[in-house]
Amino acid sequence: MKEIYPKIFLxxxxxxxxxxxxxxxxxxxxxxxxxxxxxxxxxxxLHPDHIFYAKNIxxxxxxxxxxxxxxxxxxxxFNYFSTWQGKKIKxxxxxxxxxxxxxxxxxxxDFKILKLPGHSLGSIGIYEKKHEILFSGDTIFNNGFIGxxxxxxxxxxxxxKTLIKLKKLKIKHLFSGHNY
Length: 180
Ligand SMILES: [Zn+2]
Prior knowledge:
- It is globular, with a radius of gyration of 15 Å.
- The chain has 180 residues and is an alpha/beta fold.
- The protein has helices at residues 48-51, 54-61, 74-80, 156-167, and strands at residues 2-5, 8-12, 16-21, 25-28, 40-43, 64-68, 83-84, 87-88, 96-98, 103-105, 110-115, 124-128, 133-137, 173-176.
- The longest helix is centred in the last third of the chain and has 12 residues, at 156-167.
- Zinc ion is lined by residues 45, 47, 50, 119, 138.
């Protein structure tokens, strides 16, 4: 676990996961086992490499799991993927569905939810305006690549609109779902 910004830690697993170790403890994505206390697990989107350990983490930490509107249909995922890397994906309970502009304050950070459909219909970004931080999931990456839109549950036209929306955003620190 490496501190990449004050109180923000990176852990690399099936995807990059980020831990915000503030008054409210947030984990962004569940592509790796995680042992520390978590209040909220935010899933950037419903893909197996991002949600694989969600059930384990929920069981151990009793955290709330939240996901963007459009990606809350777990059945859809399980119809498509029942295993990941040869292991069964465990179903978990979603506690809350996020909408555009929902706010999450951790103590020092004021995060805002941005809907970024394209890579999946309910993909979200988690944005901090003052620090110009964006947790982008699989929508955009540091190397300039954008997320695939040839998956089940993705939409190329929506991705185009999402990229236009992101161009207007001030981003100094991009923390994406893969690569670092
Ligand atoms: Zn993905």
